[in-house]
Design a protein that fits this description.
about 450 residues; single chain; alpha+beta; extended; six-stranded antiparallel beta sheet; about 20% helix
Length: about 450
């Protein structure tokens, strides 16, 4: 064999090693290589091997705990062991399939660009910087040791189920641990758990087959792709009684009146309920993360005013009402556009006149330009626009008159008068009146 042939043979041998080495490591890491995935070496092993074996034992113990909790969940939901095993095998198959898919980049360098993104477990030993390509070009070589930040936990119970929502600042899985006793311990075999492996920032889990009129305690957990887990503090909810009102309120007659930097939203419900408006400038509007304005007062007539908006901008909103039994109703996504900046004179308010009775009052005023009418009133000052009582009219007029009913006798009320036209909102506050004695 001449020297040229020898060099060619050595080059081919090195190339084969470079390609197969990461695949061999991948197979070992998934338990498909010799030695059950353990690192082999000469002699009796070293401290690194012992650490790896210890870490593997810890992971196995955690998997056993999760499996025990999942078996309990199967009993609750009526799944058989065979169905559970089938689902677990499918999950393992999907994980392995995702791992092997990443190796397509070795054959076609553009594969990741055309077929990504894909979620790859840290158990995949990816070759030649593929992990960096999958996680993004800005990915750092520093290991991720920061757990997700959990926020916005919300439980919405019915008589035999509950929907639990929360958000995280990074993509992670979803898990809820619950029990009928306080001090929920996620590692306890007596605690129920429901897990969704889907990686997301907006989490939603529905727990079914609960007992009516029962208080449950729960914590949520989210674990990112690097394995960092975050647990929430404990919260609770109480399921409704079997005979309780389980029908959400009906939302109707939603109207909006847009200004340059504000929007007034009004709607009706067929029963007393609270009011809330979620809003944003992009679709889809996610009510878990969107900003909102709400009114905790229970009423059939609802009026909320969003302020500080951008002129000549399209906004999307969802109206939500919750009745006294905790049933929640939400509208479809609506849209409106604020008006452009106008040179029209603002609706200056003048000639405010108040006539008070023992349980009623009439407030009248004028504006130079046609505008809507809104009064916020309360027995405390300054008037809080979130908690204050409201009375309004969306009709555009220059002469305004609003009647207030159901007032307490011999009581001082403070109020704010507000009118809105295409130039925005103009308001006068600091006014008051005193109802008469009977």
């Amino acid at each position: 064999m001449n020297s040229h042939t020898t060099r060619l043979f050595i080059s081919l041998f090195v190339a084969v090693l470079l390609v197969t080495a990461p695949m061999t490591s991948f197979a070992k890491n998934n338990g498909n290589g010799h030695g059950n995935g353990r690192v082999n070496g000469h002699g009796n092993g070293n401290s690194e091997e012992k650490n790896i074996e210890k870490a593997q034992n810890i992971a196995n113990n955690e998997d056993k705990n999760v499996a025990q909790n999942q078996n309990k969940e199967n009993k609750i939901t009526g799944k058989s062991d065979r169905e559970s095993i089938s689902a677990d095998m499918q999950s393992i198959h999907d994980d392995e399939k995702s791992c092997w898919r990443a190796f397509g980049h070795l054959i076609a360098p553009g594969w990741i660009r055309h077929n990504g993104p894909i979620d790859i477990s840290l158990e995949c030993n990816l070759p030649f910087g593929i992990a960096k390509k999958i996680s993004g070009s800005n990915a750092s070589s520093t290991p991720d040791v920061t757990a997700p930040v959990i926020s916005g936990i919300r439980a919405m119970p019915a008589k035999d189920q509950v929907e639990i929502r929360w958000t995280t600042d990074e993509r992670s899985d979803s898990a809820v641990f619950w029990s009928t006793t306080a001090n929920v311990d996620a590692s306890s075999a007596a605690v129920h758990v429901l897990i969704r492996n889907e990686s997301t920032r907006d989490h939603q889990i529905v727990i079914k087959r609960l007992t009516a009129t029962t208080t449950y305690y729960f914590i949520v957990r989210s674990r990112d792709v690097a394995g960092n887990a975050a647990f929430s503090s404990e919260a609770s909810f109480t399921t409704k009684s079997a005979s309780a009102d389980n029908n959400p309120p009906m939302i109707s007659s939603v109207v909006t009146l847009a200004g340059t930097t504000s929007i007034q939203i009004g709607w009706k419900t067929n029963e007393d309920a609270t009011g809330r408006v979620y809003f944003g400038t992009a679709l889809p509007l996610n009510i878990v993360t969107a900003p909102f304005l709400d009114d905790a007062t229970s009423s059939k007539n609802h009026v909320l005013v969003l302020t500080g908006l951008l002129p000549q901008t399209t906004y999307y909103l969802v109206v939500e009402s919750t009745d006294n039994s905790g049933n929640v109703a939400t509208s479809s996504t609506l849209s409106f556009a604020t008006t452009p900046v106008s040179t029209t004179t603002t609706p200056v308010i003048s000639v405010i006149d108040t006539t008070a009775g023992s349980t009623t009052a009439k407030i009248a005023w004028k504006t130079a330009w046609p505008a809507s009418s809104l009064i916020l009133y309360d027995t405390t000052t300054p008037v809080n626009p979130i908690t204050a009582l409201t009375a309004s009219s969306s009709a555009l007029a220059t002469d305004h008159e609003i009647d207030l009913f159901g007032l307490a006798t011999s009581t001082v009320y403070f109020y704010t008068v507000s009118s809105t036209n295409d130039a925005g909102t103009y308001a006068i506050s600091g006014r008051s009146f005193t109802t008469l004695a009977r």
